[in-house]
Amino acid sequence: MSSIALDVHTHLVPGGRAALPPLDGVVRRTADGVMVIDGQPLMAMDLYHPERLLAWMEANGVRRALVSVPPPLYRQHLDAVAAHTWACYVNDGLLEIATRHSAKLGALLHLPMEHPAVAQALAACYGESAHAGYALAAGGVDAVDYGDPAHRPLWERLDAQGAFVFLHPAHCCDGRLTRHYMENLLGNPYETAVAASQLLMADVPKQYPRIRFCLAHAGGAFPAVCGRLQRGFDTGRPGVPAQIEPPLQAARRFFADCIAHQPAGLRLAQEVFGRPNVLFGSDWPFPMGIPSPGTDDTVRAWRQDATP
Q: Which InterPro entries match (predicted)?
């Protein structure tokens, strides 16, 4: 089995650091090391053990991985001051882990997009540190609108950095999806599609071309609706900006991971984004990811089409 150069989608929790910030809502249980975040224990134990990720990478031929915190750590309800404190805690923790394993791991730093000024300040603060890029929450709260002009200073800074920016869905707030695990199964792809469409309608990918936006889960629902966005542009539908780059053309500026769960979904992502722009991602250690790349049909199809 040939090796995989890079996994753009893995998660870790900096739970091993000695001190939590002085914030309400987060405790670490001394008995088992589990973090209880806003009343919910985060029980996926692999998240707390970077050595387990490294062992999985070795077993599956993955040479390097980019790590970001999982959605329970986004904590989008925090006010601006608390969000800044919390982001510094998780980002410093990820950097600490990545520094210890610099040949294998790179940190994607969390930016709380619900507070544009905080996100900008953090990007400035960490701009010169040895990180691999940033991870942003798609959706989760109505305040997150990637097309908001308030984010322009951030896009300018990230464009100047030539930043890799990973978009990962946050909690879906649609109450209709609370049953049958649909908040994840349907809500996550939907939130990614909304975020990508907001960027596209604001012409962000064209105006800030050095930002490498990468969408989780093969772009979510975005590849399936991109043609419809194009149709709305072509027919001048109300509210669709006439001056933006055509949606199907702009989509080729995005990257996405390969977590489509079926070869047909992968082929659609490759058609919309371009085959070289669909990268390997595992979503380690979660079961909705790709735990066994060597036996996964979608990964097998991705390997056949991936650019060496």
A: ACMSD, Amidohydro-rel, Metal_Hydrolase
What's the mean pLDDT in 74-85? 96
Neighbours of 239 (CB within 10 A): 6
How far is 189 from 222, CA to CA, in rounded Å? Answer: 8
* pTM score: 0.96
Number of compact structural domains in the chain: 1
Phi then psi dihedrals of residue 98, to 5 deg: -65, -35
- Which CATH number covers residue 145? 3.20.20.140
Tell me which amino acid residue 34 is: V
Binned at pLDDT 50, 70 and 90, residue 16 comes out as: low
> Which pLDDT does position 168 carry in this prediction?
98
For residue 308, the model assigns a pLDDT of 40
- Rounded (10°) CA dihedral 31, 35, 41, 44: -90
Whether 51 has a pLDDT exceeding 70, the answer reads: yes
At residue 211, the pLDDT reads: 98
- Confidence at residue 273, expressed as pLDDT on a 0 to 100 scale: 98
Q: Show the beta-strand stretches assigned E in the chain.
A: 7-11, 26-28, 35-37, 40-41, 65-68, 105-111, 133-138, 164-169, 212-215, 255-257, 278-279
CA 274 to each of CA 218, 257, 259: distance values in angstroms, whole numbers, following the listed order: 12, 12, 15
Rounded to an integer, what distance in angstroms lies between the CA atom of residue 239 and that of residue 291? 42
Domain with 25 in it: 7-305
Distance from the first to the final alpha carbon of the chain: 14
Q: What is the b/e burial string over 51-80, where b = at least 16 CB atoms within 10 angstroms of the residue's CB?
A: eebeebbeebebebbbbbbbbbbbbbebee
The answer to whether residue 1 is domain-embedded is no
